[in-house]
Prior knowledge:
By secondary structure, the protein is an alpha+beta fold. Helix content is 22%, strand content 34%. It is built from two helices and five strands, in the order βββββαα. A five-stranded antiparallel β-sheet has the order 1-2-3-5-4, covered by helices on one side. The relative contact order is 0.21.
Amino acid sequence: MTDSSENSEIVQQSKQLEEFKVDLNYNKEMGQIVIWMPVGEHDMRIITSSEDGKLDCVFVQMHPSPEKAQETYEKFATADDVRTMFTLTGIGKKCK
C-alpha cells in the first residue's frame, strides 16, 4: 500500500493463523489485506517474498475504506477461514 499523503499514517495489524500470516494495513482512506505463507510449503502463486525470505505473499486485496478492510480482516478468525476462501474462489492456486 502506498502512502500518497505525508499526514496519512499507515496502521498495521497482524495475526498468525497456523501456516497463514494475515496482515491488515490501512490509513484513513483505504485498507489492504495481505496473506503470507512459509516459503516452499504451498502450491500458490507468489506475489512477492518477505525481506527476510521466509514468507511468500500469496494474496493481496485492496479495500476502498479502512472499515471494509477491518471487516474482512475480522472474518479471517481461523486458518480454516483462509483455506475456505482459497478453496471457494480458486484465488492464488497455480494452474496444473
